[in-house]
Structure formats: structure tokens, C-alpha cells
Amino acid sequence: MTSPTNLSVAVRGVLRRAVDVFRDEPEIAKLLHQQLDRLDEPLRVAIAGKVKAGKSTLLNALVGEDIAPTDAGECTRVVTWYQDGRTPKVVMYPRSGPPTSLPVHRRDGALAIDLQGTAPEQLDRLVVDWPSQSLRTATLIDTPGIASASTEIARRTWAFLAPEDDSLTEADAVIYLMRHLHSADAQFLESFQDQTVARASSVNTIAVLSRADEVGGGRVDGMFSAKAIARRYQAEPTLRSLCQTVIPVAGLLALTGRTLRQAEFAALKKLAHSPREHADAMLLSVDHFLAPDHSAGSSDSETPTSQNALSREIRHSLLERFGLFGIRLSTTLIRQGTDTPSGLAAELVRRSGMNELAEVLHTLFTQRSDLLKARSALRALEHVLSSSTNAATKDLGGDVERILGGAHELTELRLLSAMRSDEVDLPRAEHAEAERLLGGSGVAPAVRLSLSADANPAQLQQAALEALGRWQRHAENPLFSRVAAEACRAVVRSCEGMLTNLPRE
Ligand SMILES: Nc1nc2c(ncn2[C@@H]2O[C@H](COP(=O)(O)OP(=O)(O)O)[C@@H](O)[C@H]2O)c(=O)[nH]1
Ligand SMILES: [Mg+2]
């Protein structure tokens, strides 16, 4: 089995040969050089979805800082890259003309980008350098919305993620946000399925049921409903074939948790400890929460009301930072005994679904980073070759074919995608096991073999041997179709690969 490193080596080799072949065509050579550089850079993960799906908020939650502008400012209409850098830096790349550096300003702790008069339509992208541990594993790309009110914005996101005339999609993986399943969402995900190299885009797409706290109308148990809906979406054949999994996340809650301020905790504590019926009445709705004085006119106007406890300004900012759900949840938690800002922060993050998302991003994207990057590079090269008349491209094409055919990881991706589209007719139990053994839930041997993460080498070895035997028998099963038998043989190879690479005792 070709290990990911071998695949990377092979891809580097073919790219270098291509650079040599195209040395007299500087534009193409430059592009190929960029592909080579990209193999050493962090994975590129785009965040896509409709306007107001919560993309920028989720990006901020992933980074743990307020760097992506949210809501409707002009910057939110430009594709913006956030990459790890030594010092904060913002550079705008116009469609034509040289890039320009923009000043780095912070307003209320958030990065404020001022385009200095340039219209968003004239920009190709913004690139923000930001020192951040999380950006070291993945460069995050914030995109404007799809199927938005503004067709121009939508057009630009489509052009970035699913270019029609140019298969050089710049992202290696996509987090797709949707609030409720909408036909425009399914259509978008479909268009992102690439037809060329690995035909396996579902393997690099994760769907997020975003703003999940709003699903239950802001009820404290709302995240349970969100989880149930996400599970239902996940079982839908269309979605299953378009993305790996659907995870409910309340990005706002996660971001606020990760950046919780002492003063916010103090305000929530005040609210939690104000007379119960006033606090409850106030938390009925956003209007109640912002009402000048809820108990005005009531008989016991002597009682200090919760509104009195918090200025209107503070209430506004609490709503913006927590949402009604977050405020309800926080006051409940404080009443139940959460008594420190760090305790509340951790609980907000835990309940936001962010930890689950981080885990999935780690197992499905980060651990596969080399493979996904190699796949992007092969796609780019295939594209160059298909539009070139250079006679030497035939040999290069043969090299690409050989890499595609020889790299078992790419076969795994292709097969996982086919299995998720229900194109492989294995019985249900075998189908689920095959997906796992092929790396569908993560590439680590323990995950593939359904063992706990601390399984020792002997246990891994034993389980891999058993799986190998089982799948060799499946591969010979005369009742299985040709496609199913082919899948079984690939699973056998995955088992053999594990056995070869498992650490010796
Ligand atoms: N309640 C709640 N509101 C959210 C959440 N995520 C984003 N929002 C709000 O939704 C609005 C749009 O968010 P934004 O991140 O700018 O969406 P984008 O257009 O997809 O980038 C903002 O007012 C956010 O505060 C969430 O998880 N829960
Ligand atoms: Mg945005």
C-alpha cells in the first residue's frame, strides 16, 4: 500500500517533471510551482453556506478570536483567507493590479477591516495573517453566501468553490453550513462534487447544522432537537452522498465561550440571582429582554426588576454575544452552581457542539491532510494537462494515471464516496463495517477497527487479522455483485495496509 508520504512523494515528483515540461510557459510553470508549495502549507478549508448561516461566526469560534467580520459589512462580501502568520497583516488582492496592504485595526477586540474605498466587487480576495495555533493546522477561507439575495455575491462564492470553466477549486475541504435543509443547499453541494480526479468530494465535505441553538426556539433543551434533526439529515440519501456527516453547532455560543469576559459573567450572575419570576419573564423573548421595564405598572413596583439590574446597553450586548438561548442557558448554569467565568466558558463550549466538530475536523480533515492536498494537486495538474497542447503532456498524463491507480488511499476515498451514494450493494452490516475499515470515520487503525484509542499493538494486530480473514471471505462470496466484490477487495487491501504499518510489539 502506498503510504500518504509515498503518495506525496509521487505527486511532488510528477509536479516537478511538469514544471520542467512547462518551463517555457511561465504562467503554467508558476501555477505548478504554487501547487508544489501548497503541499507544504496547511490544509485549506473553506466555510460555505448561505448568507447569515453563521459562517463568519463559526470561523471565529474555530480560531477562538473575533477576526472575521460578521453580519452585513462590505468585507463580508469578499472571499477572505485567514492564515497563520507571525504578525497580524491584512492584504487585499484586487482583480487587476498589485496587492495592497491594509492597516490592522481592532475595535472592541474584533479585527476591523477597512477597504479604504475599494468596492468589494473589485476584489479577488483578502488575505489575513493572524498568529494562531488553530490556523497552523488549517487555513480557513470565509466565503460570501450562496443563493443569497445578491446574485453577485452568490456568483462569486460559486466561482470560488465550484468554478465552471476552471476546475482549480482552491479549497482542499469544505465545511458547509445550513440552517434548515433547503433545495439551494443540496444543489450547491452537488455542484461541488468534482467530476475529475477522485470523484470523491463528499469525503472532503462536512455539513454543519448551524445556529443550532435557535432550532428549539431558544429553549434550554434546544440542542437536543438540533441533534435529532442533524441525525435525520444525515440519513437522507442526498445529503449522505454529498457530505460525510452533519453536526449541529451553535457557533455563537462557542465563540462567546472561548472569549468570555469577566464583566459578562458578572452581568449574567446578577441576572441569575435576581428575583426568579422577573428573570423568567424577561427571558421569554428578545422583546421582553430589551423592554425598558418589564414590571412597569405592576403593583409591586418597589421590587427591583431584573431590567433595573442591567442597563439596556448591557442587555443589548449580552444578546449579541450570547443570543437568548445562551443567556437562558448561562443563567440556568449559574443557578445550578457554575460559579466561575472559566467554568461557564467551558460549559458553553461543551454545549455548543464545537468539541464534536473539532473532533470530526481532526479525524476527517487534519489526519488526511496530506492525502487531501495531494488530491487537490493532482486535480490541478490534470486540469493543466487537459488544456495543454504540449506534446510531452501525454507522458505526464500517464504518470498521473499511474498515481491515481496505484495509491490505495485514493481508492479508499473514491469507494467511500460511492458507498455514501449507495452505489455499492453490500448488506447493511457489511456496508457499515466496510466504510469504517476504509477510513470513513477516521484513518487511525483503532478507529477503522472499532477499538478504543488506547488499544495495544497486539489487540490492533489481532483485530486487523480477523478483519482481513473476514473480508477475504466476503470477496469470494458468489452472492455479492461485481461492484460489491470489488469493494471487498479494496477493504482487504486496507486491512493488509494496516497490518504492514502497525507498530511491532
Ligand atoms: N443564535 C445564534 N446566532 C448566531 C449563531 N451564529 C451566528 N449567529 C448570528 O447570525 C448572524 C449572522 O452571522 P454571520 O456569522 O455573520 O453569518 P454569515 O453571513 O454566514 O457569515 C449574526 O448576527 C450572528 O450573531 C449561532 O450559533 N446562534
Ligand atoms: Mg460572513
Walkthrough of the structure:
It is a single chain. 53% of the residues lie in helices and 11% in strands. It has helices at residues 4-21, 26-38, 55-63, 133-137, 151-161, 183-192, 222-235, 237-242, 251-258, 262-272, 276-282, 286-290, 306-309, 312-335, 341-352, 354-365, 369-386, 393-406, 408-420, 428-437, 445-448, 457-476, 482-501, and strands spanning 43-49, 80-84, 89-94, 100-102, 105-107, 110-112, 123-130, 138-142, 173-178, 205-210, 246-249. The chain folds into three domains: 40-250 and 355-367, Rossmann fold, CATH 3.40.50; 259-348, no CATH class; 424-501, no CATH class. It is built from 23 helices and eleven strands. Helix 1 (4-21) runs parallel beside helix 17 (369-386) and helix 17 (369-386) runs antiparallel to helix 18. Residues 164-168, 193-200 and 294-302 have low confidence and may be disordered. It is an alpha/beta fold. The protein has a nine-stranded mixed β-sheet with strand order 4-3-7-2-8-1-9-10-11. It binds guanosine-5'-diphosphate and magnesium ion. Magnesium ion (MG) binds at residues 55-56, 70, 76, 142. Guanosine-5'-diphosphate binds at residues 49, 51-57, 70-71, 76, 145, 211, 213-214, 250-253, 323.
